[in-house]
Design a protein that fits this description.
With 126 residues, this protein is mostly beta strands. The chain is built from no helices and 9 strands. The strands form 2 sheets. It has a 5-stranded mixed β-sheet with strand order 2-9-8-4-6, with no helix packed on it. Strands 1-3-7-5 form a 4-stranded antiparallel β-sheet, with no helix packed on it.
Amino acid sequence: MEDGVRKDSTILQTAGKPARIRLTADRESIRAQRDDLAYIRAEVTDEKGVLITDPVTLNFTVSGNIDLMATGNANPKEMRSFTQPNCTTYQGSCLIVLRPTGKAGEATLKATATHLPESNISIRMK
């Protein structure tokens, strides 16, 4: 038992108000070749980092030698193009797929949403 919580137990927390967009890459760098991809997970959290499961629409822009190839959220009922630069979170998150243009360097993905501060993540291409 650690901190009075059994290891085989689950703690449920009620999320507060949406406070930030958390971006997480599958890796820090990718090859600067068109056949490599970077996968970025976008999540909306409260001040304590608890995942917000209510839907939030996120907008994405990229800069640098990279293209935004797809956005998706795994919602089986949502019928929309995966190539749009926005996505509504489903069960707290969505996925962004980036593809290098073929040139080395650094690229940035920016995520924005109404009433939330923007979030950025950088990807190096070697």
